[in-house]
Structure formats: structure tokens, C-alpha cells
Design brief:
Elements: E1 13-17, E2 21-27, E3 33-37, H1 39-49, E4 53-57, H2 64-75, E5 79-82, E6 93-100, E7 106-111, H3 129-138, E8 145-148, H4 153-164, E9 168-171, H5 179-186, E10 191-195, E11 213-217, E12 223-227, E13 237-239, H6 253-265, H7 269-274, H8 278-295, H9 308-321, E14 329-331, H10 335-341, H11 349-353
Parallel strand pairs: 1-4, 1-8, 2-6, 4-5, 8-9, 9-10, 10-11
Antiparallel strand pairs: 2-3, 6-7, 11-12, 12-13, 13-14
Helix pairs in contact: 1-6, 3-4, 6-8, 8-9
Length: about 375
């Protein structure tokens, strides 16, 4: 197995394993959109577009779906040299259908069966531990950031290896299927991010000594997070969602949110994350919200990347975002709960300061263009 090139010291590098699939987006009156998809593939492609060196580890079979996926990811600069580790499996396929409800509002559904014959389409299979171990033994430095969105023994091997080498581990679980492996993954995870409804039955996740930031995305409700970065106490803070005027599809918004957070906080590795300021953290959350909202104006998880107009808008959002003050993040507190707990509800001036000014500028509706900013 050939060795990968060493990470360029001035270019951040991310390696990821998890859900990689062929996305087929169907919408009445429009041509089908066929792209690489899945949380892991989307995050790696977005980070590559933002200037990262991205490497995918998966076990895609040499089938028709994989040809689409690998060509698409390669187009966006993702390294796919380790995308077909043995034993290979049929490439997962996900059919997304965009529809209108009775009120004319667009929404999407996912199907894992062929829309013509009803046959069950291939589903995700994780990289085996033996294949992952062999790869890591031959290539000790694949990235200073590891992204994992599905718990498996192979994924845990990657996380533990990256953490042991001083790198960062980003964990984005979609569920808790194996509680033992989930707990082990949390021991290595520096940032954990998930959709609130995906882990709703489990309540809040338990932090380990490694954890620095926990993010819950709430869909139209925005996002909430807690952290010990920037000298903050580990209290929940809420950030409102950015309105979307020309809404088409919310698919992939969470993947964009994740990628932008990593781009803002993890470019300089573990030292960069540890030195994150309160202002830097709020800026990262704000920008992640804005770019996630931008993508909702296009069909598919990364639809904006395939449009010249969309790419222009994205460049404007990134450029203009550097001159914006971060939006207000409200600290979640409850005096009644504090009294039951017995803790002090008095906050220091430093803790209050993270909420920003008492009056924030109004948020205009997001539109398909930088004028929304």
C-alpha cells in the first residue's frame, strides 16, 4: 500500500470515514441531481473547497454508483486513494425527493429503495478494523483532523490514532447504535455535533476530558452549544437560525454547518482550537449558520457548489463574513432549576460579556445573493 504524502505544514488536512453514498435528488419538473453524498463525503468535499487537504477512507465497491461518487469527489479535490479498501461493499444509494405540502411549502424525504422496482438499495458498511489498522500502520500521518460520523471499530481506530498523534477528532453521530463504542468514541472526541432529534431519547451526551465543544442543531430553531473554550463555563447558549427567503431544500445544511465550524476553529490543529476566543467561537457559529442557510436555496446537500451563481454567492458570504459582527447568542438559564440544583446562579461579568451587546442588529432574510448580508 503506497504511503500518502506528508501533510503540508501550511495547509490543514482532514481525514474522514463514515457515510459516503450516491445521492439522487428528485423534484417534479426538474432534472434529477446526481452527486456524491453522505455526511462524511459532504464535509470532506466542502472542506476541500475551502482549502483543506481532504482524504476519504471507505470501502466502496467498483460499481456504477462508486464511479459517480469518486469522480465527483475527485472533482472537488478530495483524495480517494483509500476509498476502496477491502473487503469492498456495494456503494450506498440514497434517493431524496423534494415535494410541496398542502400549504405549498417545500420539504424532502429520503428513500433507501429503488423508486421504480422497490428493491432495497445498498446501505452503509463501515471500514473494518483490520483494514484501518493496516492503513494507519503504513501511513501514520493522514491528517491533523479526523472526522467520524458513524461509530464502528475501524472508525474508533482512526479516532484514537489521530488523538494519540496530537490531532483533533470531530464526532458527528446520527444515533447511538452501539453504546460501548459510542462511549469509547467520546473519550477521543474534541468536538461533538449532532441534530437534536437524532439523539433526543438519550438526553445530553456525557463529556470526556477531551471534549471541548458540543453542538446541537435544531433545524428551524437554530443551534445551541456549550463549551469550555475561551474561558467559558460549560453552559448552553442558543443561536437563532438565519431566515431563508428562497427556500428549496434543507438537506445538507448540517454538513455545511459542520464544515464551516471546522474551517474556523480547527485550521491550526489542537493548539488553534485550544486558543479559541469567545469572539472567535461566536463568529464561527454565526458564519456556519449563514452558510448553512445559503445552501438551503439549492437542491441537494451541496447544490450551491454546482452552480456558478451559487459559488459566487458563497465566496461573497465568506468574504463579507469577515467584516460582520457575530450575532447574539443567548445564554440558557433557569433560576428555578438552579435553586433545585443548589448551585449559584450569579454570573460573572466575563460570562455575561459573551452574549454580546444588549441590542443586536436585525437579521434580514437570507436571499440568493450577498445582498442579504
Amino acid at each position: 500500500m503506497p504511503k500518502a504524502n506528508r501533510v503540508h505544514p501550511t495547509r490543514p488536512a482532514v481525514v474522514g470515514t463514515g457515510l459516503v453514498a450516491l445521492d439522487i435528488v428528485l423534484r417534479r419538473g426538474h432534472s434529477p441531481v446526481i452527486t456524491a453524498g453522505g455526511t462524511c463525503a459532504n464535509v470532506l468535499a466542502i472542506l476541500s473547497y475551502l482549502g483543506w487537504r481532504s482524504t476519504l477512507i471507505s470501502r466502496l465497491q467498483d460499481d456504477r454508483a462508486a464511479a459517480y461518487v469518486l469522480q465527483d469527489l475527485s472533482t472537488w479535490g478530495v483524495s480517494t486513494g483509500y476509498a476502496q479498501l477491502g473487503p469492498t461493499c456495494a456503494t450506498p444509494v440514497i434517493v431524496e425527493r423534494i415535494r410541496c405540502d398542502a400549504h405549498g411549502e417545500l420539504f424532502h424525504t429520503f428513500s433507501f429503495s429503488c423508486p421504480v422496482c422497490g428493491r432495497r438499495l445498498p446501505s452503509y458498511q463501515p471500514v473494518t478494523s483490520s483494514s484501518m489498522t493496516s492503513l494507519l500502520d503504513g501511513n501514520p500521518i493522514l491528517g491533523n483532523v479526523a472526522f467520524v460520523d458513524r461509530v464502528s471499530r475501524g472508525a474508533l481506530d482512526l479516532a484514537q490514532h489521530t488523538a494519540a498523534e496530537g490531532g483533533l477528532v470531530i464526532f458527528e453521530p446520527s444515533s447511538i447504535r452501539d453504546e460501548k463504542l459510542f462511549k469509547e468514541m467520546m473519550l477521543s472526541a474534541h468536538i461533538v455535533k449532532y441534530a437534536q432529534d437524532s439523539l433526543a431519547e438519550c438526553g445530553e451526551v456525557s463529556w470526556s476530558d477531551a471534549t471541548r465543544l458540543e453542538i446541537q442543531t435544531l433545524g428551524r430553531g437554530g443551534a445551541r452549544f456549550r463549551t469550555n473554550l475561551g474561558g467559558l463555563q460549560r453552559l448552553w447558549r442558543h443561536s437563532q437560525a438565519i431566515p431563508v427567503a428562497d427556500f428549496v431544500d434543507a438537506c445538507g445544511a448540517g454538513d455545511w454547518f459542520t464544515a464551516v465550524i471546522l474551517d474556523r476553529l480547527c485550521r491550526k490543529g489542537s493548539k488553534g482550537l485550544a486558543s479559541t476566543s469567545r469572539t472567535g467561537l461566536l463568529d464561527a457559529v454565526d458564519r456556519a449558520q449563514r452558510i448553512a442557510a445559503w445552501n438551503c436555496a439549492f437542491p441537494g446537500a451541496r447544490g450551491g457548489m454546482y452552480s456558478a451563481e451559487g459559488r459566487r454567492e458563497l465566496r461573497s458570504l465568506v468574504r463579507v463574513g469577515r467584516r460582520l459582527r457575530a450575532t447574539h447568542c443567548e445564554e440558557e438559564s433557569d433560576e428555578a432549576a438552579a435553586q433545585i440544583c443548589g448551585c449559584s446562579s450569579k454570573r460573572s461579568a466575563d460570562e455575561t460579556a459573551v452574549q454580546g451587546p444588549s441590542q443586536t442588529r436585525s437579521q434580514p432574510a437570507q436571499s440568493r445573493g450577498p445582498r442579504a448580508l
